[in-house]
Amino acid sequence: MAPMGIRLSPLGVAVFCLLGVGVIYHLYAGVISSRIAGFRQKKTVDLRDLLALSIEASIQGGREVKRIREDDTLEERSKGKTKEGASEKLTLGDLNSHRKMYYLIKNTYPYLQVNSEEHDSSDGEATIWTRNIPDNVLNKIPGSKMVPSESVTVWIDPLDATQEYTENLRKYVTTMVCVAVNGDPVIGVIHKPFTGYTAWGMVGQGANVGPRGSYNANNPKVIVSRSHSGKVKGFIQQAFGNNTEIIPAGGAGYKVLALLDPSDDEYEKADMYVHVTYIKKWDICAGNAILKALGGHMTTLKGEEIDYSGSESNTGGLLASIKIDHKKLVSRLPPWDENK
């Protein structure tokens, strides 16, 4: 039966149906087109918000790290060997911190690329950021800093210095978040779970930590990884002399803070940080961003900037310094075969 009680021939019925299909098609096509257009519109993200979120994520992860260590429920196991042949530890502190940090960021910004040292097969956590921005961030960064979301890569280290964590060497342990824009480290957060201290920096905007008053480039104190301090000793002595003081320490976050003037007193004071073997970007990105925010440098041993997009690996070693002529330091380093 056609509308208005009008009878149609079979041909008329067919024409009427085709017209109806055409109308429906154009309606759906319009809806789909608008959705595609909306999808194609570039999303942006506020770097100030990302800094505040990174601070909160590092603190939430740190609570888990501290709780599990104090409860002595580490459930320690090995997840394989490092390139140097040492056992790479994994604990419940690593995993629980990862879940808190990763899902807080992904639940807030599901379209951002987030790279974490750890992975798990859980269904995630329904954690939500309160969008509270700390006063010290508001004081340093009064306005929004918008960037395209596709330019952003987030690197998180849910527990830096796991080996030291299992040995109960708490001062070396940190949680870290870094935000890179087009591969450049822009935001860095390093949190110490057992003291509650948090250092942060944002390139071009400021930091809540600063450099020390002076550094010694001629007879430097050099901080290195305690896991292979013997391997790097000859390299450093060849560059700076046999009497160079070498400070073995755990955790890349701790080593960067040892170059600065943090408000707690758990740090050896170093003039530079040297690493000669393979290292992952989530270990070093936050420290790189903080140093860069303060006018310092972190490069490969050849003086090349480290790109924090793409692969998780940094195979060129690193040299970190602040308030010292970094190029001159690089020129003093002997050749290094990264495959040694």
Automatic annotation (TrEMBL):
Pfam families: Inositol_P. Its cofactor is Mg(2+). PROSITE patterns: IMP_2. Coiled coil: none annotated. It is a single-pass membrane protein. GO terms for biological process: phosphatidylinositol phosphate biosynthetic process. It is an enzyme of class 3 (hydrolase). Its EC number is 3.1.3.25. Mg(2+) binds at E117, D157, L159, D160, D283. Keywords: Hydrolase, Magnesium, Membrane, Metal-binding, Transmembrane, Transmembrane helix. Pathway: Polyol metabolism; myo-inositol biosynthesis; myo-inositol from D-glucose 6-phosphate: step 2/2. It catalyses: a myo-inositol phosphate + H2O = myo-inositol + phosphate. InterPro entries: CysQ/Inositol_MonoPase, Inositol_monophosphatase-like, Inositol_monophosphatase_CS. It is found in: Membrane. PANTHER family: 3'(2'),5'-BISPHOSPHATE NUCLEOTIDASE 1, INOSITOL MONOPHOSPHATASE 3. Belongs to the inositol monophosphatase superfamily. This is inositol-phosphate phosphatase. The lineage of its organism: Eukaryota, Metazoa, Chordata, Craniata, Vertebrata.
